[in-house]
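Hi Q.,

Before the meeting this afternoon, I wanted you to have the 2-acetamido-2-deoxy-beta-D-glucopyranose prediction in hand. No need to reply - just skim if you have a minute. The sequence and ligand are here:
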Amino acid sequence: MAFNKMLLSGPMKRRLLLSFLCLLSLCLLDGWLTSNQGLLPVNVLRNSSSSPTVTVLLWHWPFNTSLSLKGDVCWDLYRIPHCKLVDRRSFFSSADVVVFHNKELIRGHQKLPVDFPRPPGQRWAWMSLEAPVHNGNLRRFAHVFNMTISYRRDADVTVPYGELLPKEADGRVTEDVSLNKSSLICWVVSNYRRRHKRSKVYKELKATVPVKVYGRWTKTPLPSEALLPTISRCYFYLAFENSLSKDYITEKLWRNAYLGRAVPVVLGPQLSDYRDVAPPNSFIHVDQFTSVGEIGKYLQSLAEDKKRYTDYFKWKLKWRVKLHTDWRERLCKICPQYNRLPQQKVYSDLEAWVNAKNT
Ligand SMILES: *[C@@H]1O[C@H](CO)[C@@H](O)[C@H](O)[C@H]1NC(C)=O
Ligand SMILES: *[C@@H]1O[C@H](CO)[C@@H](O)[C@H](O)[C@H]1NC(C)=O
Ligand SMILES: *[C@@H]1O[C@H](CO)[C@@H](O)[C@H](O)[C@H]1NC(C)=O
Ligand SMILES: *[C@@H]1O[C@H](CO)[C@@H](O)[C@H](O)[C@H]1NC(C)=O
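Predicted structure with the ligand bound:
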């Protein structure tokens, strides 16, 4: 498309002006089309093969660990087209989105480029996968960011720790749930704090049923290759989050329990958050019981009833677990979302947004 050619060959200033004008006209046209539904198919403009490339600049790598951005990474690794991921700051003036990972900002290891004028139309994105309590004081970022990248489902770009994708029919009709269990309930915990709600639930639970504990807290750490095999020998796995906040469901559910083939007993966001992202009868939520004693009784009876227990694995016939661990994949996810972002958006109170309670 001509627009692409101009982008590549024109001198810088002309390019910026042009891309700005093009974006503007696209937006206007798009607005016109959507307000005149039926005259023209709106998706003409959204045809991925004709949409201009989105340039995403990562200002600094999360946790100081950089990954290769050689080639067209979003396409090569994730089949996401028209998405240019860069980490060289010289792209600042031409980037559509500049991404800032929160941790380094709040620790003062990195700074926002507030001394440079922000190119018109450029969006600054705030990115964090931490629960609110670990994000620090965000009041200083009022009126700075245009978008959020978080595990939250109401973020502009949602990057969950994991998710379930529909399984392609592969001829396999049954999921093998051979039971080779030696423990009723297992918990893996490194960071034990008495004040955590999960610690209180654990203590009450182990007063009624046996709970096997691994991890740094009990000085029985599991090497990563032993984690899933160990969990697979437990009927139930306590997927207890250390922070109870909206949508905060981590690899404790997606990887440890689901891939470890133990039924997850979850403690984290409210039941409805789990129901929205995980199939029924694939987990047991602590809030489904009136007391911890009831949970213990329920788990014990379930373990003694093979049919009812294995029903908790039926979801595997339809769903497969997809873990998200690579920052590049999270960043590439910006591009398919880019054209759906509101034209103008500013997080005037990021602190309030981050700390929003369950709705
Ligand atoms: C949409 O993309 C396809 C290729 O994927 C192309 O063949 C087609 O012409 C495009 N349509 C429009 C209207 O641009
Ligand atoms: C990040 O890594 C660089 C180079 O390895 C080092 O100089 C810098 O101190 C590190 N920063 C932090 C915050 O760890
Ligand atoms: C069952 O688990 C034990 C360890 O608890 C292991 O040694 C054995 O190989 C397992 N058997 C099967 C059939 O997986
Ligand atoms: C992004 O936020 C800045 C700072 O508040 C604002 O001036 C700018 O208009 C916003 N841009 C978009 C595209 O929303």
